[in-house]
Amino acid sequence: MRDCSKNLYRLLGRAVLTGADGTKTPCRGAVVRRKAQAGDYASGLPHETGELCRPLYVFTGGLDSAQPGDVLEQDGVEYTVLGAEPLALGPMRLGLRLVMERRPEHEGE
């Protein structure tokens, strides 16, 4: 599979993913707050990772892999990874999509 992710996100913000073992992986991408939609998870509803009490955020960028529990930091704000899925278009790898929640110490920023 051809990897196009480095070129796609080269102009977006810098971020660092810290794995459970402390390994830091620099990357580029964008973090956006996920808007609630009809039938979507909302505050106080059960989720496979526990009860959601904060809004979710999505990072789309040039990462090879991430695991639930990893921490992504961008612009001084830290997010806990809840899930990750690869992005592809046919035979082209476009990057990774992370669903995250903002770490409690960064709420309100």
Note down, in words, how this protein is organized.
With 109 residues, this protein is mainly β. It has one helix at 5-8, and strands at residues 2-3, 14-18, 24-33, 46-47, 50-51, 56-61, 71-74, 77-89, 92-102. It has a 6-stranded antiparallel barrel. Strands 4-5 form a two-stranded antiparallel sheet.
Q: What key phrases describe this protein's structure?
A:
mainly beta; 109 residues; 6-stranded antiparallel beta barrel; two-stranded antiparallel sheet; single chain; 1 helix
Summarize the helix and strand pattern as letters: EHEEEEEEEE
What number is the mean pLDDT?
81
Number of strands: 9
Shape: globular
Write a brief structural summary:
This protein is mostly beta strands.
What are the SSEs and their pairings?
Blueprint lengths: L1 E2 L1 H4 L5 E5 L5 E10 L12 E2 L2 E2 L4 E6 L9 E4 L2 E13 L2 E11 L7
Parallel strand pairs: 1-9
Antiparallel strand pairs: 2-3, 2-7, 3-6, 4-5, 6-9, 7-8, 8-9
